[in-house]
Backbone:
């Protein structure tokens, strides 16, 4: 592992998170590939990491705690990505998360019927690939690497400060 200061690692993680979020929105809005519900959930850790890293610059005394939160966030991202990959590969059945879009907006049976008639993006359908890999596969790799990197930073916090 490179022997950089924690600030440099956090800038790298911020950049990876920012590029991930921008790429997801580019693929959705410019290229026209609609995400499933799990794809949308997989964006949350990147948004949270951006917020936490920005907060870190204002709350420097809590840097170690923020690193711990980032570990938990990217571990969550890894678990969700592995679950989503399992659905894509047919290892798991689609859950309710993959079904109805926003149950809070459904207040009548007519709205429910209308929602059921709309074509929802299935969590098992891969509509976009990069180098033959689904975005979920790439997210597994990124989440795994960031979790390992952040864990190493947390363990050797005093040396790298």
Residues:
């Amino acid at each position: 592992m490179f022997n950089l200061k924690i600030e440099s690692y956090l800038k790298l993680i911020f950049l990876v998170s920012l590029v991930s979020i921008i790429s997801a929105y580019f693929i959705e809005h410019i290229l026209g590939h609609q995400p499933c519900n799990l794809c949308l959930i997989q964006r949350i850790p990147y948004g949270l990491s951006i917020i936490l890293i920005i907060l870190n610059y204002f709350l420097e005394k809590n840097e170690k705690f923020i690193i711990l939160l980032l570990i938990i966030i990217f571990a969550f991202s890894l678990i969700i990505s592995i679950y989503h990959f399992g659905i894509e590969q047919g290892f798991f059945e689609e859950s309710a998360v993959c079904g109805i879009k926003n149950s809070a907006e459904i207040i009548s049976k007519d709205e429910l019927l209308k929602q059921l008639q709309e074509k929802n993006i299935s969590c098992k359908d891969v509509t976009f690939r990069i180098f033959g890999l689904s975005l979920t596969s790439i997210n597994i790799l990124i989440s795994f690497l960031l979790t390992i990197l952040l864990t190493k930073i947390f363990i050797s916090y005093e040396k790298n400060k």
